[in-house]
Specification:
heterodimer, A: Rossmann fold, Ubiquitin-like (UB roll), de novo design (two linked rop proteins), 11 strands, about 45% helix, about 15% strand, B: about 190 residues, 2 domains, four-stranded mixed beta sheet, about 40% helix, elongated, disordered C terminus, binds flavin mononucleotide, binds iron/sulfur cluster, binds FE2/S2 (inorganic) cluster
Chain lengths: ~400, ~190
């Protein structure tokens, strides 16, 4: 496990958070999550307290807590590390959420690629049941029953999107739903459902163990707390790092030992490209927001190779419901290949940028909306580097080689 | 495994029924006893069939559809959507090489060429003896330790071209040591 600096989770004693939360009224629990300023760590950054409050207020027989462990964003692996090292905090966060909104069941949607983590998680859950931390009357709290089950994903990136995830849990193709209704009012089997990221739920346990004000005082005005980052690419020390929200990208790259970086991809394939001149920007919701993936690109990297790789990913993973996402991603991929071959006209490139903007506007879910990000970002910053590439049968090139 | 970089070694199939399965239908009946007959049982049932038989045939899809009282087209829709469910036969050892960005930057192309050479098949193919299938994977969450390979449910990281043969040999050993895990499923039955 490449855990590179001190991570708060390692210092949290199991049961502290859960004990503290169950000692409070349900609405106080929701209130404290609101007060902590915790926002979703899965990428979108929606305030967790607001989500919980909506679900808590919804009237229904059944409600569900779903832990989104589908971690599929390229360059992200911090949820894997959390599940391997501090799964109990995730279970506690789910239990606290269940208590707060009045849900009896929690489901972990674990990506199929993480099948090797499953048995250890099942063992920990079984232990929690024998210790009375799950099941009827959790920790002796009369009337509060809660249990957690694991559901395995089957290798589809789009199932990380919460409504596609819910469809998948219902036994269907992972095709995103139209919203509204949002899952907090009509989610799994039509019941109010909270979907939270693995890291978000682990922070909930930490917040109750150390207090909402502790969390609020770390980070920036609009982004409380710490963030786990998955750092890979051209760095000497790839791995998982924890930084307070608001940390400058330059400081993060320094810690990871970035090697002659020319840019960083922040937020994975759906994220943005931050060129070296912008490394003074900060990781937080009001500046560069991310689910935690940072991929460092050194000066030797060719942006078109990177782009082609990302675009193949999207063309492969689009669920296919929206024409603009299904075909748009293929068109962008063809465009990138034309650029690589040195055969893309400026006019065609312009059309591709227009297509990218339309994809942002007209796609139904975050996959399609974010898929042209990297293309547009690279063209914005490095257009000069991608135009006018030599062609395979290039007259000038061949002549030079011959001489 | 000697010198391997596997993070965790776990048996792949735990709940193989002890008794011989007479027919696929009986087996599916047993799966519905375990998972129920509601729609939400569909994916767990299909995952189980895939795990045991390495294929989800048209016949299997028809049987499952009957038991869950849904159209076979619905079942097919699900099978074709997810990359871990498969209508075609896949080898008992499925090797998935991550092709996404960090592994790409860490040199996945060389690994890809070497695996193809050593197995004698291309991506998307299965060896004639039915032992190995080779597939691409999208980011498998090991980007800090790429290039990464998932073999069934086991991960190998920091793979180099020279380690490829070692990994394949280790898989074959595992295959020979626990033939039960890799027992040829009665997948011929699906072809009825
Ligand atoms: C294509 C796509 C993939 C996503 N993948 C994940 C994922 O793997 N894990 C995750 O927690 N959220 C993912 N999300 C975000 C979820 O839809 C959702 O916002 C999140 O799980 C909410 O949890 P949070 O508020 O705790 O962040 C994805 C979104 C999109 C559009
Ligand atoms: S935007 Fe793409 S992935 Fe999302 S629903 Fe539309 S086709 Fe599917
Ligand atoms: S890019 Fe290969 S594991 Fe993430």
């Amino acid at each position: 496990m490449n855990i590179r600096n001190e991570v708060t989770f390692a210092s949290i004693r199991p049961k502290d958070g859960l004990t503290a939360a169950l000692g409070k009224d349900r609405d106080v629990v929701v209130e404290e999550v609101l007060r902590s300023g915790l926002k979703g760590r899965g990428g979108a950054g929606f305030p967790t307290g607001v989500k919980w409050k909506l679900a808590a207020e919804a009237k229904a027989e059944e409600k569900y807590i779903i832990c989104n462990a589908d971690e599929g964003e390229p360059g992200t692996f911090k949820d894997r590390v959390i599940l391997a090292e501090w799964a109990d905090l995730v279970f506690e966060g789910m239990t606290i959420a269940g208590y707060a909104i009045g849900a009896k069941s929690g489901i972990i949607y674990l990506r199929g690629e993480y099948g090797y983590l499953r048995q250890a998680l099942e063992d920990k859950l079984a232990l929690r049941r024998t210790e009375g931390l799950l099941g009827d009357d959790v920790m002796g709290k009369k009337g509060f029953s809660f249990d957690i089950h694991i559901h395995m994903g089957c290798g589809a990136y789009v199932c990380g999107e919460e409504s596609a995830l819910i469809e998948s849990l219902e036994g269907k193709r992972g095709e995103s739903r139209n919203r509204p209704p949002f899952p907090v009012s009509e989610g799994l089997f039509g019941c109010p459902t909270v979907v939270n990221n693995v890291e978000t739920l682990a922070w909930v346990a930490a917040i109750f163990a150390l207090g909402p004000d502790w969390f609020k005082h770390v980070g920036t005005e609009k982004s409380s707390g710490y963030k786990l980052l998955s750092i890979s690419g051209d760095v000497a020390h790839p791995g998982v790092y924890e930084f307070p929200m608001g940390t400058k990208i330059s400081a993060i790259l320094k810690a990871a030992g970035a090697e002659r970086p020319k840019a960083a991809v922040v937020g994975g394939a759906s994220g943005i490209l931050v060129p070296a001149k912008d490394f003074k920007r900060a990781i937080c919701f009001e500046d560069v927001s991310t689910g935690g993936s940072i991929i460092v690109l050194s000066e030797d990297r060719d942006f078109l190779d990177i782009l082609e790789n990302f675009q193949e990913f999207f063309a492969d993973e689009s669920c296919g419901q929206c024409t603009i996402c299904r075909l748009g991603n293929v068109k962008l991929l063809e465009g990138i290949r034309l650029l690589k071959e040195g055969r893309c006209t400026t006019k065609h490139l312009q059309e591709l940028c227009t297509l990218g903007s339309s994809m942002r506007a007209a796609s139904k879910c975050g996959l399609g909306q974010a898929s042209p990000n990297m293309f547009l970002s690279i063209l914005q910053h490095f257009k000069g580097e991608v135009l006018g590439r030599p062609q395979a049968d290039d007259h000038f090139v061949n002549k030079r080689k011959a001489s | 495994m000697p010198n391997s970089t596997a993070e965790k070694v776990r048996p792949v199939q735990k709940d193989r029924p002890g008794s011989k399965v007479n027919s696929l239908q009986d087996e599916i009946d047993r799966l519905t006893e375990r998972f129920g007959t509601e729609r939400k049982a569909l994916i767990p049932i299909l995952q189980e069939i895939k795990k045991r038989h390495h294929i989800i045939s048209g016949y299997a899809m028809q049987c499952v559809a009957d038991r869950l009282s849904i159209s076979p087209a619905e079942v097919y829709g699900v099978v074709s959507f997810y990359s871990f469910l498969h209508e075609e036969y896949q080898g008992r050892i499925v090797i998935r090489l991550c092709r996404t960005i960090s592994c790409d930057m860490a040199g996945k192309d060389a690994i890809a060429r070497q695996i193809q050479n050593d197995l004698g098949i291309k991506f998307g193919e299965t060896t004639p003896d039915g032992k190995f299938s080779l597939e691409w994977a999208n980011c498998v969450g090991m980007c800090d330790q790429g290039p990464a390979i998932i073999v069934n449910e086991q991960v190998f990281t920091h793979v180099t071209p020279e380690k490829v043969q070692e990994i394949i040999t280790a898989c074959v050993k595992m295959y020979e040591r626990t033939p039960d895990l890799f027992k040829k499923g009665n997948h011929n039955e699906h072809k009825k």
